[in-house]
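Lab meeting prep.
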Amino acid sequence: MTHSQLYPIVHTMILTRSFLSRYGNLVMASETVRIKPETHLKLVALAKSAGESLTETLDRAVEALRRNNILDSANLGYANLRKNKKAIAEWKAELKNWEKSLNDGLQDQ
């Protein structure tokens, strides 16, 4: 089954990004992304409630998802670490060594 068969009705958005040309002029480039009509309606509602453009809202959403993925990855790493008693003991010993580095004689500010 092709993509167009799976999503017979899609909404096309033009996303823009800006950069400086070699002459210092602001240039807008665009990419086309196909999204479902329901997703477009959600994006419009989010943008309207935030008082910003669709592009700004989509930028924030992508950045939030990127950050969430980083946190999920870190959480998974710590969960795996907790399963390995030897590794967690080594990690805790390393943390103690790092804590000693705080004894640098400087006053807390």
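Slide two material, second protein:
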Amino acid sequence: MQGKFDEAVKNYRQSLTFKPHDAYLVYYKLGNTLRLQGKLNEAISQYQKALKLKPNYTNVHYNLGLTHMLKGDKNSALKQYKILKYLDNNVAEQLFKHIHK
């Protein structure tokens, strides 16, 4: 399984040079893959890059909050929850449930 994740990371990084207009989406997917690999700091970095390009991307805020929770950083997860309350209350409530498990 690790090999498939490594291949996905390689492909996402390569696609940044070929599809710069979709870079926010590539950073998001790269963040997801890195999170699944347990590379939480790297995942957070990729999510932050995605948000610089598309600040109101709900899925990124949600996954960034989840990743902060996996790191045990409840305060940072709550910051993402507060942003999501403004963007999409339903998604915010889903994150809230994870924060308060």
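Talking points for slide two:
The domain at 2-99 is CATH 1.25.40.10 (Serine Threonine Protein Phosphatase 5, Tetratricopeptide repeat).
The chain has six helices and no strands.
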